[in-house]
């Protein structure tokens, strides 16, 4: 027979399988749910994923800054090309998701647990392909089609930001929230996605007169990195309190 | 009389699996379901069992084909890893379903 003490399971002999009290099934189910939740909490390394992604985001800023080609015209308008992003992000995201998967597995293993991190690593790899593929597709499309005269619709900007590396980071974080069944991460990711898709000008940067072209591009990236970093610190603090 | 027999036959408690319907074994199945793979020591700590007791329960589950036990070494240290089989995952889901039905039946009365 087993006598539950709080959330733990204290064995008293181990032979009988009694279920005498009418409320036992409910208590049993409740204990199983608690046990499952505890295992899930011990597997979580959300802060590590956020920290790695913040590091990759911050490291992209100088790459973008120095690799950007800017050509300004006498009328004050400027043209720019962010080729560096295309060369930086695919290998950087592959390395980042590989590192996250490795750190998750190592931490879980040291606690005596396995973990379901493979779907996350696969999604990371897929998004690595999606970003340059989308970039190339848009480039090829506008080579044979003229830019529309009127202002582009708002959804175009949202879609453009979604296939950018910062939007892809949000998509993989959504998957991580689902894998970890973490409402906290879901909430955080929703806020992050709203920021990088709807608020920050990730594609065009903040413009004149307050910022130059390079600084205007760097600031939204720094904000996105800072949000990821703050998220990592927050999830780390919550995890420490739970253990 | 027939009505009572039919009612008994349909009672969710009659379908409970003797191998699975045991707190410790349900605990083992639940943990392995969440973690995919679990080390013996982790199970022992979480379920607060002696090594001997846990081994007995693992043997029952392994014989029923609900888990797989894999022994190996990590450096010089012996490690035993437990993995839930597809049959084990189904048995756990069925058991939880029956427990929910049982609760619903008790609440209906």
Automatic annotation (TrEMBL), chain B:
<dbReference type="Pfam" id="PF13601">
    <property type="entry name" value="HTH_34"/>
</dbReference>
<dbReference type="InterPro" id="IPR036388">
    <property type="entry name" value="WH-like_DNA-bd_sf"/>
</dbReference>
<dbReference type="InterPro" id="IPR036390">
    <property type="entry name" value="WH_DNA-bd_sf"/>
</dbReference>
<feature type="domain" description="Winged helix DNA-binding">
    <location>
        <begin position="24"/>
        <end position="103"/>
    </location>
</feature>
<dbReference type="InterPro" id="IPR027395">
    <property type="entry name" value="WH_DNA-bd_dom"/>
</dbReference>
<protein>
    <submittedName>
        <fullName>Transcriptional regulator</fullName>
    </submittedName>
</protein>
């Amino acid at each position: 027979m087993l006598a539950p003490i709080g959330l733990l399971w204290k064995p008293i002999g181990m032979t009988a399988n009694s279920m005498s009290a009418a409320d036992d099934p409910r208590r049993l189910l409740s204990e199983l749910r608690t046990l499952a939740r505890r295992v899930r909490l011990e597997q979580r390394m959300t802060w590590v994923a956020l920290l790695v992604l913040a590091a990759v985001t911050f490291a992209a800023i100088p790459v973008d800054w120095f690799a950007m080609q800017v050509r300004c015209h006498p009328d004050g308008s400027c043209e720019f090309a962010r080729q560096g992003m295309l060369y930086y992000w695919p290998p950087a995201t592959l390395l980042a998701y590989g590192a996250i998967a490795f750190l998750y597995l190592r931490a879980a293993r040291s606690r005596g647990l396995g973990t379901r991190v493979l779907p996350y690593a696969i999604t990371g790899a897929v998004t690595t392909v999606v970003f340059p593929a989308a970039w190339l597709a848009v480039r090829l499309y506008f080579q044979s089609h003229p830019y529309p005269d009127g202002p582009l619709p708002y959804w175009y900007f949202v879609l453009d930001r979604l296939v950018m590396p910062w939007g892809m980071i949000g998509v993989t974080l959504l998957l991580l929230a689902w894998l970890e069944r973490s409402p906290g991460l879901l909430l955080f990711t929703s806020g992050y996605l709203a920021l990088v898709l709807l608020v920050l000008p990730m594609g065009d940067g903040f413009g004149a007169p307050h910022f130059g072209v390079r600084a205007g591009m760097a600031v939204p990236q720094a904000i996105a990195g800072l949000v990821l970093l703050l998220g990592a610190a927050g999830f780390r603090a919550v995890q420490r309190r739970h253990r | 009389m027939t009505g009572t027999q039919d009612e008994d036959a349909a009672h969710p408690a009659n379908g409970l699996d003797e191998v699975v319907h045991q707190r410790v074994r349900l605990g083992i199945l639940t943990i392995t379901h969440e973690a995919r793979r679990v080390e013996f020591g982790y199970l022992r700590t979480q379920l607060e069992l002696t090594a001997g007791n846990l081994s007995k329960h693992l043997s029952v589950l392994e014989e029923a084909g609900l888990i797989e036990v894999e022994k190996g070494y990590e450096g010089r240290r012996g490690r035993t890893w437990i993995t839930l089989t597809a049959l084990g995952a189904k048995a756990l889901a069925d058991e939880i379903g029956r427990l929910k039905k049982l609760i619903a039946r008790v609440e209906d009365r």
